[in-house]
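Async update (no meeting this week)

Hi team, since we skipped the sync, here's where things stand on the single-chain job. The sequence we agreed to prioritize is pasted below, unchanged from the tracker. I ran it this morning and attached the output directly underneath so nobody has to dig for it. Comments welcome in thread, and please keep replies under the output.
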Amino acid sequence: MKNKWKILIVDDDLSILRSYQKYLESEGYTVFTADDGRAGYIAIEKERPDLVLLDINMPVKTGLELLEDLNRTFDKKDIPLVIMLTAYGDLNPAVKATSLGAYDFLSKPVPLEKLRSTVERALETLTLKERIAHFVEPDSTPFKDSIIGRDPLMVDIYKTIGTLRGNKATVLVTGESGTGKEMVARAIHENTVPDEPFIAINCAAVPENLIESELMGYVKGAFTGAAANRVGKLEAVKGGTLVLDEISEMPYEFQTKLLRVIQEKDFYPIGATEKKRFNGRIVALTNKNLKELAENGQFREDLFYRLNVISISVPPLRNHMNDLEMLILHFIKKANFTQNTSIQSITKEAVDYLRSHTWPGNIRELENTILKASIKAKDKILTRDSFSFLIPEKRDDSDPKTVVSVEDFTRPENLIPLRDVEKNYIEFVLRQTNWHKGKTAELLGITRPTLDKRIEEYGLRKDV
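Output:
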C-alpha cells in the first residue's frame, strides 16, 4: 500500500511546498514539510522519512549542505532516498548532489505527473530486497581480474593450464572476439612463471616493416636511424610469457623467422652477428581458423603446427550461460573497485533480462554492459531498468509468432474486435518495458492516467 511510505518535502517556496504536499497526500502518502535545511535535518531525525524532496537553494542551510550533513552523521543505510529540486539549470549543484548520493535531480516547477512518476520509481527501489538475486559482499582486498566459470568447458581450460607448469610449450588460444583469450594468456603466465615478465603485442597493430625490430630488436647502426641498441620483445621477456595477439595478421614473410625462433630457441637482432637466446613461452591468440588459413596458403602451415603444441579453445559466452551470474557479480565488483561505484546487489529481473541476451560480443560485451549500468545507476541496486540502454536483439523473422503485419490483421479469418487489438497491443508493450508504466505510456502516446484506466478496464496483470 502506498500509505506506508513517508515523504518529507524541504523547500522555502511555500506555494510549491503546499502544492506538492497536497498532491502527494492525495496519492496516499504521509507527507511532512520543512521550509529550510536546518528544519529539514530535524524532521529527518524525528520522522525518519523514506524519501526527501530537497530544494537546493534555501536560506539558513542549503539542500547540498543538508545532504552533506546526512552523509557525515548518518550511517549510509539510514539515509533516506533524496530527490533534489532546483529552479536553476546549474550543472555544478547537480553533479555535487549526485556525488553525495542523491537519487534524482528535478528542475522546478516539476509537473505533478512527473513528480508522481519519479517518486514512484524512487520508492520502488525500497521494495526490491525481496527481489534481489545476489548481494555483492564487501571486500577490502584489492580486486584481481581472472578467468571465471564453473562450466565443464571452463574447467577443461583450467586443467590444461595446470599441465603447463614446468615446461615452455607454445600455446595457441582460439575463440571469438571478446571471449577472454587475453585473460587465459594471463592465467597461463600467473600459474607458471608469475615472477617473470609478461609482454603482449598485437600483431595487427604493428606496421609490417616494424614487426621484426619490435620482436627481435636491433643493434646500433643496423640501419639509418638506429642510433642505439634496442632490446626486442623476444629478449625483454626473459623467462616469462610473450603473447602474440591476432597472430593471423603477422606478415607472411616474418613467419619463417618466428618459426626458427620456436624451433631453435635463439635469434639474431637486426644487424647483430651474435645470437640471443629466447627463454620464454609464446602464447598465440587468434579469433580465426589458422588451420583453414594455412590450407589456403594465407598462413604458414609449419608455423601453425609449431604454435599448436597445446591448444585452448575459449567458448563463447552463449555456450556457458550457467556461468553468467558468477560473471555478473565479478564485473560488479570490478566496477566498484576500478570506477569507485558502490553497487551492492542485482535483482532477479535484471539477471533474467541479461540471460535473455545472446551476447554476440561475449565476455567483453557483458563487462562493458555491467560497467555502464553501474556508473549510471542512481542507487546501489541494479534493476531491469538499469539495462534499458541494452539494444533488444532482433527476433527471428521466420518465427510466425514474432511477425505482425497489416496483412495478418486484415485476413478475413484473423479479423478481431478493435477492443481486443488495443488490449493485446497494450499488454505487448507493457511486457517489452517490463511493466514500466511511464515508458509504456510514452511509447503508446497516451497519458499515464489513461494507461492506468486501460489496464484496469482490460484486467491486465503483470506475470509473477
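Quick observations from my side:
Residues 144 and 452 are 48 Å apart (CA to CA).
Confidence is low (pLDDT under 50) at residues 395-409.
Reply here if anything looks off.
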